[in-house]
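STRUCTURE:
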């Protein structure tokens, strides 16, 4: 599954799942655009790690919720590597509250980054992916988009919104031979779950048939397959990577 010569833009890839994806693709020889919003130092470290592993990397600061910044990220990508073959919409946030307490601001913030960011990035890189040989759009959703989760009405709505979006773009892209898929991770050991009390995590693990949380590598390995030319007949799918949570 060599990624040599393929240019991959991964949003939110200075840390967490995005970082794992960036390093996996980089280790297979990809040209990687490491996007960050605020974690500049971590982004530079990620770029170094990719180059050491044999890939090429450039960092691009952009808040995915701000269209002009995403446009600038596309310019950085084009200048460094030319047009993109793969876009991974990974950047995401939570702003949890029981629904009666949830503010409109918390709702909008989650929509702006998780769905608005996906809109901005997909539109900016649409022509690149359409015209690429084996172009790939990969959206990182969540098991929460399927199952819901207490206190996450905003996040669950955004993450299930990604499913319909992905299927629609898959239909549009199909005419040009590119694909669009979602990956729906289960609970994964990153900063995002760091504030979840250990007791709650234990309860979550008790409900996972494989009896552990996901590691970023578990998610990155599936994304790497989808990003490769070997997944060319898979499109419009939601691939669950959740240790069997919905069995
Ligand atoms: P994380 O550790 O909190 O990292 C989030 C990443 O997103 C950071 O790199 C952050 O960049 C970036 N980001 C946030 N807002 C951004 C914005 N407006 N513009 C650009 N980048 C932005 O999260 P994670 O656990 O790796 O999650 C990655 C994705 O997987 C998210 O979409 C999340 O919803 C999804 N997911 C996570 C889990 C889980 O259990 N961890 C489960 C299912 C799905 P900066 O640091 O530069 O701000």
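SEQUENCE:
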């Amino acid at each position: 599954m060599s990624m040599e010569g393929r240019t991959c833009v991964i949003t939110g890839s200075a840390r967490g799942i995005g970082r794992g994806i960036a390093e996996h693709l980089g280790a297979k020889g990809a040209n990687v655009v490491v996007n960050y919003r605020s974690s500049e130092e971590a982004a530079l470290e990620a770029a170094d790690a990719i180059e050491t592993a044999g890939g090429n990397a450039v960092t691009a600061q952009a808040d995915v919720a701000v269209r002009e910044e995403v446009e600038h990220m596309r310019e950085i990508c084009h200048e460094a590597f030319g047009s993109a073959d793969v876009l991974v919409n990974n950047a995401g946030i939570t702003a949890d509250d029981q629904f009666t307490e949830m503010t409109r601001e918390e709702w909008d913030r989650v929509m702006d980054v998780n769905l608005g960011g996906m809109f901005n990035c997909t539109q900016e890189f649409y022509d690149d992916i359409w015209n690429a040989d084996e172009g790939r759009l990969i959206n990182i959703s969540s098991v929460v988009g399927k199952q819901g989760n207490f206190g996450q009405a905003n996040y669950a709505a955004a993450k299930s919104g990604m499913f319909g979006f992905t299927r629609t773009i898959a239909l549009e892209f199909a005419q040009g031979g590119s694909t669009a898929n979602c990956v729906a991770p289960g609970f994964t050991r990153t900063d995002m779950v760091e504030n979840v009390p250990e007791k709650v995590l234990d309860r979550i693990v008790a409900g996972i048939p494989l009896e552990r949380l996901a590691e970023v590598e578990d998610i990155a390995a599936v994304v790497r397959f989808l990003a490769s030319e070997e997944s060319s007949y898979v499109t419009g799918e939601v691939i669950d990577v959740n240790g069997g949570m919905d069995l």
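REMARK: The longest strand covers residues 179-185.
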